[in-house]
Design goal:
Elements lengths: L28 H6 L11 H21 L4 H19 L6 H9 L8 H15 L8 H10 L6 H17 L2 H14 L3 H17 L22 H11 L3 H36 L8 H10 L3 E2 L9 H13 L4 E2 L8 E3 L1
Antiparallel strand pairs: 1-3, 2-3
Helix pairs in contact: 2-11, 3-5, 3-11, 4-5, 5-6, 7-8, 8-9, 8-11
Length: 339
């Protein structure tokens, strides 16, 4: 079944209220300088990278806890970025536009295809409540979306292992433990990234997770590889535990800064959308605005509050005219709109 955006109280707000978001988190210059680039990680000490990563995650935590009404669109946009990288790691050619098409233009209940399922796997990370992410049922579904054969016994063992990792390990141990657990069972680093992001959200008490490590191309093993292949690659790649920890922390910090930058960009776009809301005359305009704030994109033919295709297209044309949305497909038919 196609996983659509699941609006939650953090995603939706009363459109009749104030239209301006909370002040954007201002990242200090020292933090941007302190977070090492991928090539600079080896030259820095683990403690220095850990401090920078902690500061970056702290800044991201401030964004998450504001629970902005556009948080749904933010999470889905980050999920799209992770899916795009995952698809490339699997040797696929789908870009952001193709991934959107695979999900939005597929009827509910139909197969979204391999790349579309990868996108749905990352959307699941952001859409489901954090406490449900590491259950056997959810992990089994994610593995299938990432192209792995379902193995209930392995998933059960994985859940037990992750429970111990989340309860006893420090931040570094939690990160490395997520990847070690995924690769021990032959599920690869893409799934390890997903698990690490879920564990971080649980550790920090977030209501929904934020895709971070999944947006880093350096940590992927193509989905669907055999366990023997994944285990062999893990044994050759994870030799220097300190080096691996530094790489993970550095990647997490860089991803946190990118997520914060994206939140600032979407916050400005959301403010523009909410500012023009009083100018819209369509009866279902508020519902459409809520969906734009809660999802990455909307297809113009979608059934929203009983609006006709023609009425919805007119509304989107008006929003385009007002500079409140963007058309994301670049084509004259089956158009897709988002912040």
């Amino acid at each position: 079944m196609i996983l659509r955006a699941i609006p939650s109280p953090r995603h939706l707000g009363m459109l009749a209220g104030a239209t301006v978001s909370a002040p954007i988190v201002a990242l200090p210059t020292w933090l941007r300088r302190a977070v090492p680039g991928e090539q600079a990680v080896a030259a820095q000490g683990l403690e220095d990278i850990a401090i920078a990563a902690g500061a970056a995650i702290g800044a991201l935590d401030a964004v998450v806890r504001r629970q902005e009404r556009w948080a749904g669109a933010w999470g889905r946009r980050l999920a799209l970025a992770a899916a795009s990288i995952t698809a490339k790691q699997a040797g696929r050619v789908e870009d952001d536009a193709a991934l959107r098409d695979a999900v939005l233009l597929t009827r509910p209940g139909d197969d979204a295809g391999p790349a579309g399922r990868m996108y749905l796997g990352w959307c699941r990370l952001t859409a489901r409540p954090t406490e449900d992410l590491l259950t056997e049922a959810n992990l089994g579904a994610v593995l299938e979306e990432f192209g792995h054969a379902r193995d209930d016994e392995a998933v059960g063992e994985l859940v037990d292992e992750l429970r111990k990792v989340g309860a006893s390990a420090g931040t570094v141990g939690m990160l490395t433990g997520a990847f070690t657990a995924a690769e021990r069972h032959g599920f690869g680093r893409v799934f390890g990234s997903w698990l690490a992001d879920a564990l971080l959200a649980q550790r920090l008490g977030w209501s929904h997770a934020v895709p971070l490590l999944g947006t880093n191309a350096a940590f992927g093993i193509s989905p669907g590889r055999s366990r023997r292949t994944a285990t062999a690659q893990a044994s050759t790649n994870i030799v220097d535990e300190a080096g691996w920890a530094k790489a993970l922390l550095g990647a997490q910090a860089r991803a946190a800064l990118r997520a914060i930058d994206l939140s600032a960009e979407l916050g400005r776009r959301a403010d523009r959308l909410l500012a023009v809301a009083p100018k819209l005359r369509a009866k279902a305009a508020n519902t459409v605005i809520e969906k734009l704030l809660s999802d990455d994109a909307i297809v113009a033919s979608e059934n929203i509050a009983g609006m006709s295709d023609r009425g919805l297209r007119r509304l989107f044309d008006r929003l385009l005219e007002l500079g409140a949305v963007r058309e994301l497909s670049g084509r004259p038919t089956f158009r897709i709109y988002g912040l």
